[in-house]
Amino acid sequence: MLVKVRRILYLHYLLNKQPTQMLSMFFWTQWRKPCKGDWVYSVQTDLEEFGLSPDLSSLKEYSKESFKKLVKSKAVTLTFQTLMMKKESHSKFNYLNYHSLEIQSSFRREHLTKMDARTIFLFRTRMCDFWGNFRGTENGRLCPLCRNHPDKQELIAECSVLKSEFGSLHSIVQNVYSKNVRTEDAKYMVKVLQYREKIRQEKQNFAT
Question: Is pLDDT above 70 for 18?
């Protein structure tokens, strides 16, 4: 994406060169009579991809700063759309919904430690230590705490051991997947996951 942005900005730079300058003359010759593999083919594709007008006279009318701002905005939109398309092919992101390309506010909270933010990120992307989070593993492993359901992250609120210790977790889980995760819910989920790991380790040690 960065290469495309720079290519379009360089096009704007070329458009504002004096027509008698060698670089400008070379560009216009290539633009009017392009050959296979020429730079102009790449930049024409970039303009179309960014939704910018191929009319060079209209592009030239922009000031350097206003054009740079326009291209940056187009790049952010295009990047977001591309990422959302990729998201659809990854099941780990099924519970997440985004509306813009930005750092989620939950990871910028003053009272959230780096470790807490990392844990919430792992939970939101289904990378926590649940057997069902990792493809290619054997089927049928049960929750290591209650052994009443498959060991899947989406079933964390169903674990009787966790419910006994923390009560209902459904609203907490739902909020952690939301766009604006409340600090108290994030910290509470970290506490739940730490407790789960502690009990899991105790049961594992007891079994061995």
Answer: yes
